[in-house]
Structure formats: C-alpha cells, structure tokens
Amino acid sequence: MTEGSRTWGLRLLALGIAVALWFSISLEDRQALSERLVEASVSYNRPLGLIILDPEKSVRVRLRGGSKQVRELNPFQVSVQVELEQNTPGMYSVNLSPENVLLPPGLEVVSIEPNVIRVELEREVTQRLPVRAKLTGEPAAGAVAVIEETEIFPNQVLVSGPETLVKRIETLETVPIRLDGHALSFEVEASVVAPDPLVQIVQPSRVTVRITMRQPGADDSPPADQEKKP
C-alpha cells in the first residue's frame, strides 16, 4: 500500500467516525423526552344564533416529545378548538381533553390548565340604531357648527350582538369629525364606531355627515319684509 493510499484511508476512516458520532448524538437527542408548557389560544365553533360572552382566550398546555422537537416548537403551532353543541342561552361548563388540542405530530399532551372552562351563551340579535356625529375641535374664523342642523345619511345602521347588550344601546357615534379650519358647511364620510367588541356594525359601516356652519350674527338681521317700517 502506498503512502497516498494510506493517507486517504485514514481520512475516510475519520470521516466515517465523525458521521457515526453525529448520528449517534442526533439520535439520542431525538429519543430523549422533554416537556414544555405553552400558552395556547382557544377558538370556538359557536351554535348558530348564539354569541359567547367573555370567552376564555387561552389555556396552558403541557406537551411532551423529543428534546429537539420540543425545543424548536413554535407556540403558535399549538391551539385549542372547542365545539359547542348547546343551542340555548345559558352558562355551561366545557371539559377540555387532548382531543381538543391541535399540535404538530410527534408531540403528546400531558395536561391542560385549566381543563374545565365556563362558557356563557346569549341570543344574538340584529337591530337598527340611530347614529349621531361626534364633532371635535374649533371652527375657523369664529364660525359655529349648527348641531341641530347636522345631517347624517343614512341616519340608522344595522348592528348585531348579544341581546341584553344591544337593547341597552340608544345611539351610536361616528369617529371624531374635526371642525378645525372649517368656516363653511362641509360634507364628510365617517365610520360608525361599535360601542363594544361584541357588537358588530353590519351595514353600512360608514355614513355621510353634512355639517352646517354659520358665522356669528348671520341670523341677527331682520327678515327683508321687516327691514322697512311704515
């Protein structure tokens, strides 16, 4: 055997030993079990015509799996899905089990904290509610916004939400409409603001607001037929 052949043989042997060591360490790392506690978001399949009040948004899920997989796990890959089968309003207890947890293959659920959550269901209703413009700021040149002559098109919008909450709402407001710099009447489109996250603006979500501006003393002069007295 030549010196060159012996050198290449030693190199190949060293490479084989390095690959074997890497595979052995990698295999041990994959086979060693580890646990991790993650915060998992909770989503619900709610019954038609009902709405969930103050739902539980997340629970803690303890997972077990290979050390490398657990270490590299992205918490957003874990979530909890709750199927609600109730079809009447009320307060219900829902038991959570590993079947409710969506997670990558190769991992198992050790525990869920809490494993029982309370869910309150209320009837969902739709209703038309009046809208008023929310005006802020100071007009230019001493002009005054005539609130009673402010027009909104349409002046009502359709909303949906929990029955008890919708019934307590008397009026909706637009986003703030600034009067700064305006001396003459103007028109603007504005979004309607939902007063609660559980209340949704169905349609329309935007209205047209016509704001009448008037200069001070504009109505102080007498009518034309009264200017001249006999």
Fold and architecture overview:
The protein is an alpha+beta fold and 230 residues long. It has two domains: 33-114, RNA Polymerase Alpha Subunit, Chain A, domain 2 (Beta Complex), CATH 2.170.120; 124-214, Beta Complex (RNA Polymerase Alpha Subunit, Chain A, domain 2). The protein is 17% helix and 44% strand. The chain contains three helices and 18 strands. Strands 2, 5, 8, 11, 12, 13, 15, 16 and 17 form a nine-stranded mixed beta sheet that branches.
Jot down its keywords.
disordered C terminus; 3 helices; 230 residues; 44% strand; 17% helix; 9-stranded mixed beta sheet; RNA Polymerase Alpha Subunit, Chain A, domain 2; 5-stranded mixed beta sheet; elongated; 2 domains; alpha+beta
The overall pLDDT, averaged over residues, is 84
Distance between the termini: 139 Å
Helix content: 10-25%
Low-confidence stretches: 220-230
What is the CATH class name of the largest domain? Mainly Beta
Look at the structure and name the CATH superfamily of the largest domain.
YbbR-like domain
Q: Supply the number of helical segments.
A: 3
Q: Report the biggest beta sheet as strand number plus sense, adding barrel if it closes.
A: 9 strands, mixed
From the 3D structure, determine the CATH topology of the largest domain: RNA Polymerase Alpha Subunit, Chain A, domain 2
